[in-house]
């Protein structure tokens, strides 16, 4: 393909220069340079192979006269051969240069050169020379160089692991026999080999290695490359090693969090079980047991929320994460647990303690009391103190929003249980409209009370029509302020799920609302959160469960 | 049908021998194809029969009959394609047309179907590079002697093969013949180092050795975990090779460092006895030169130790296990007594040694 020939050709000279440069310099800097370029080089080799694979050897040499030099040099660079699939592509390229019917001296020479390079790559000779002292012995045993190198690599890894473990700084001994620069060098030399399964024990040991100095001794190329490989699921590491990686290398943690968000945005959220599964696989909730990690992940989530203007999808993800984090935290060994203050240092601790309690820890009859407790604390914080900066208000709001489980239960309890509505309504109003410079929140509370009274009047009716819910529906469809819209939608949806009369007209009502407004995502997220909660706590009313599933199905098709 | 298969298996040693010889110069594309097919067929036989002991044995026996030096056994069938392919790659006489076909089949470019082969070879090249990258210069190791990594790999392969071999060939004499044949493939110093490393590994057991167990990829070792008793048999075989021939044992002890020998002597009682006997012989050949005031060799035979070297040997033995130290000390005391029990130096080499170690 002539057009593709131009792309590798342009870079051919570049890579040849690089190969020459790498061959001559043996400093750590040049080795780091190789490591940085390995992915692009692999890509280039692949393109090169695609270009020459169908031409004969003579044509290929004509097209790239210096190809022998390039391939030859690369074959003698262990970084290149050790990396991912580069060795495979290089060997294919070599095959292309071998002719089955050599017609000239050049072709004969090329043939013998190809064979000698392949022997170098595949036989049990030393890397630097082609002498194979022990190959007759190995073949006499009935083994091949493949067996030999399998053992040799495993032995080398084991030996390095032992050396590192014996020299761990344990707070008492002064440096063992390993210098920081040596460990750094080892980490650089590992970079091409990260996806080689034999290396996993060494990767783990390096990630857990602490040499006693406060500066990071592992090279950043190594840490980045391990993180990449882990995120792409090319390697699997024990949890402790992954946590250690994220604790020592902030960019890796950031990348991992953003990667998780990307994953979650790109898949269709059919159920929160799926979301929880993906999250647990990413190991981030478990890693968040370390307060430092928790706080950084939290920040990133916060920013994501702000960037997307607080879409309910993102909020739901954050809420699931918080729940998973709590689960892990609660299951932890008492000795290793960090106090709550470590995770939420700047917040009112009683409020934090209230929010952190999981609903299932209380009997359901106690829920409304607990909600009132939270609401009162929150109200005291927000209304009595001087909130001059919107940031403080946002921080408190974000804290509450993370524990959205309680908010969902609040809306549910309003309708199902005999509660004093004021505190709970205030809580919901705060969630949907935290700001009060222009009395928006106060106004929202009033609106909420109106909707609530209206719905409670209809709660016992068995025969309802859409018209009866006009008051509430109108507040959704006819209103500009989205916070009122959202709050009313929340209450109305709960009403439809939990009242007898509501069941019959649920489909019709939801359809009407979502058709005329932008609320389908809100409703959808609310429903999947409710389904998730039901799966964990169990909802006795089978009709409610059935209705929920039906509504979800319909909405899934639309969203 | 079984007879046919047995007849075919007999051809394997010849096939491998030819593939390494100049006879391949007459091979064309088709001949190569056939050879590769045979290799795949043999691997197929291995896969089918490896879990059926009687058939395994039968095939193994027939294979052994077909060789002057019975080196290859049933497990060889399992890695036939690789053995053949890599052997042919190195044989210069193979003509271009056949060679190209060989390369294509060894490296199988994308889209040409999958098989264990291509993955195996890419992994091989990658591991070779890894071995080079990870072999950084290190500060003086404080690890037990005989642990140089390449030696260790060779020793592990030898041990694996010995264990497999014992499964196949019952009788000890045959095994010893086999072992001799195999070790002859190495230059003698290297053979000694490998055997020493193997004996050391048998005593260290876990860790490195387990790490060295094969995986399924390109090195399908039979996943055979040896028990202590079986290890004892393997060690016994290696020791009979070492101790069976006086010159060989003597060369062995001259060649290897004293710390390694002390380590082995500490773990293998037959070895410590023979070693002490040998040291005694060497020691008794030393004469005291009053002019120089030291012990010298009576003849300038390289194949013996000087006084300094002898002293070093005994020092190392003293640094071994308590049992070894006691054994050595007892031996020296006995020799001193037999020599006249002198306390003054210059009269008995054993007295002087006891004073200095």
From TrEMBL, chain A:
InterPro entries: FANCC. GO terms for cellular component: Fanconi anaemia nuclear complex. GO terms for biological process: cellular response to oxidative stress; interstrand cross-link repair; nucleotide-excision repair. This is FANCC protein.
UniProtKB/TrEMBL annotation, chain B:
Gene3D superfamilies: 1.25.40.490. One of its GO terms (cellular component) is Fanconi anaemia nuclear complex. GO terms for biological process: interstrand cross-link repair. InterPro entries: FANCF, FANCF_C_sf. It is found in: Nucleus. Its main location: nucleus. Pfam families: FANCF (PF11107). Keywords: DNA damage, DNA repair, Nucleus. DNA repair protein that may operate in a postreplication repair or a cell cycle checkpoint function. May be implicated in interstrand DNA cross-link repair and in the maintenance of normal chromosome stability. This is Fanconi anemia group F protein. It comes from Struthidea cinerea. The lineage of its organism: Eukaryota, Metazoa, Chordata, Craniata, Vertebrata. The gene is Fancf.
């Amino acid at each position: 393909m002539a057009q593709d020939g131009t792309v590798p050709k342009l870079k051919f000279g570049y890579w040849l220069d690089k190969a020459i440069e790498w061959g001559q310099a043996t400093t750590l800097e040049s080795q780091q340079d190789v490591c940085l370029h390995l992915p692009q080089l692999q890509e280039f080799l692949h393109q090169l192979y695609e270009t020459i694979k169908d031409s004969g050897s003579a044509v290929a040499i004509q097209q790239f006269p210096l190809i022998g030099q390039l391939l030859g040099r690369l074959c003698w660079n262990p970084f290149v051969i050790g990396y991912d699939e580069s060795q495979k592509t290089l060997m294919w390229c070599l095959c292309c240069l071998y002719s089955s019917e050599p017609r000239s001296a050049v072709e004969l020479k090329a043939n013998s050169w190809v064979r000698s390079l392949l022997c170098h790559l595949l036989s049990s000779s030393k890397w630097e020379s082609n002498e194979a002292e022990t190959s007759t012995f190995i073949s006499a045993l009935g083994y091949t160089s493949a067996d030999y190198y399998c053992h040799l690599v495993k032995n080398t890894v084991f030996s390095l692991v032992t050396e590192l473990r014996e020299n761990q700084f344990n707070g008492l001994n002064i440096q063992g026999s390993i210098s920081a620069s040596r460990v750094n060098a080892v980490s650089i030399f590992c970079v091409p080999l990260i996806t080689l399964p034999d290396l996993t024990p060494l990767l783990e040991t390096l990630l857990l290695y602490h040499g006693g100095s406060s500066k990071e001794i592992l090279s950043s190329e190594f840490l980045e490359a391990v993180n990449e490989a882990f995120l792409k699921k090319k390697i699997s590491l024990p949890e402790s090693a992954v946590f250690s990686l994220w604790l020592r290398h902030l960019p890796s943690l950031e990348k991992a969090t953003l990667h998780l968000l990307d994953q979650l945005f790109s898949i269709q959220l059919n159920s929160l079980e799926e979301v929880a599964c993906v999250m647990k696989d990413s190991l981030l909730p478990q890693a968040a047991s370390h307060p430092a990690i928790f706080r950084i992940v939290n920040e990133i989530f916060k920013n994501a929320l702000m960037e997307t203007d607080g879409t309910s999808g993102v909020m739901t993800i954050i809420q699931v994460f918080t729940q998973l984090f709590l689960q892990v935290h609660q299951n932890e060994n008492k000795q290793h647990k960090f106090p709550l203050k470590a995770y939420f240092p700047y917040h009112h601790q009683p409020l934090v303690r209230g929010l952190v309690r999981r609903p299932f820890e209380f009997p359901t009859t106690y829920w409304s009391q607990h909600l009132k407790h939270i609401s009162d604390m929150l109200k005291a914080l927000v209304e009595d103190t001087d909130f001059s900066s919107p940031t403080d208000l946002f921080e408190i709001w974000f804290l509450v929003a993370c524990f959205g489980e309680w908010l969902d239960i609040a809306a549910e309890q309003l309708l199902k249980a005999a509660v004093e509505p004021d505190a709970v309504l205030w809580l919901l109003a705060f969630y949907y409209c935290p700001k009060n410079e222009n009395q928006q929140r106060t106004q929202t509370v009033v609106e909420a009370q109106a909707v609530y009274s209206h719905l409670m009047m209809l709660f016992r009716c068995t025969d309802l029509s859409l018209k009866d819910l006009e008051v509430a529906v109108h507040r959704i469809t006819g209103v500009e302020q989205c916070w009122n819209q959202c709050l009313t939608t929340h209450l109305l949806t709960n009403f439809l799920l939990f009242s007898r009369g509501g069941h019959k007209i649920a489909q019709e009502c939801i359809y009407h609302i979502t058709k005329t407004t932008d609320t389908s995502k809100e409703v959808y997220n609310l429903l999947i959160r409710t389904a998730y909660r039901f799966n964990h706590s169990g909802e006795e009313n089978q009709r409610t469960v059935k209705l929920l599933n039906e509504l979800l199905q319909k909405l899934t098709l639309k969203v | 049908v079984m007879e046919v298969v047995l007849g075919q298996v007999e051809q394997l040693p010849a096939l491998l021998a030819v593939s390494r010889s100049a006879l391949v110069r007459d091979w064309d594309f088709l001949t190569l194809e056939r050879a590769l097919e045979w290799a795949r067929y043999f691997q197929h036989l291995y896969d089918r029969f490896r879990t059926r002991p009687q058939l395994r044995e039968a095939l193994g026996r027939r294979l052994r009959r077909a060789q002057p030096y019975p080196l290859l056994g049933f497990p060889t069938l399992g890695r036939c394609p690789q053995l053949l392919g890599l052997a042919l790659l190195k044989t210069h006489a193979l003509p271009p047309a056949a060679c190209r076909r060989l390369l294509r089949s060894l490296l199988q470019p994308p889209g040409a179907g999958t098989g264990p082969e291509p993955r195996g070879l890419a992994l091989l090249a990658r591991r070779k590079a890894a071995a080079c990258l990870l072999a950084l210069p290190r500060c003086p190791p404080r690890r037990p002697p005989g642990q140089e990594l390449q030696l260790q790999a060779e020793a592990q392969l030898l041990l694996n093969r010995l264990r497999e071999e014992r499964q196949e060939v019952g009788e000890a004499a045959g095994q010893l013949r086999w072992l001799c044949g195999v070790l002859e493939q190495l230059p003698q110093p290297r053979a000694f180092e490998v055997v020493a490393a193997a004996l050391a590994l048998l005593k260290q057991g876990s860790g490195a050795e387990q790490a060295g167990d094969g995986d399924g990829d390109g090195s399908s070792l039979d996943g055979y975990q040896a028990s202590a008793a079986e290890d004892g048999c393997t060690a016994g075989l290696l020791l009979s090779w070492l101790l069976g021939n006086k010159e060989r044992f003597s060369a062995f002890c001259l060649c290897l460092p004293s710390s390694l020998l002390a380590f082995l002597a500490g773990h293998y009682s037959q070895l410590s006895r023979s070693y002490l006997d040998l040291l005694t012989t060497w020691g008794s050949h030393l004469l005291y030169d009053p002019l120089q005031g030291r012990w010298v060799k009576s003849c300038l035979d390289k194949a013996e130790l000087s006084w300094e070297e002898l002293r070093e040997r005994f020092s190392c033995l003293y640094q071994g296990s308590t049992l070894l130290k006691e054994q050595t000390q007892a031996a020296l005391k006995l020799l001193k007594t037999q020599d006249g029990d002198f306390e003054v130096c210059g009269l008995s080499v054993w007295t002087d040694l006891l004073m200095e170690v």
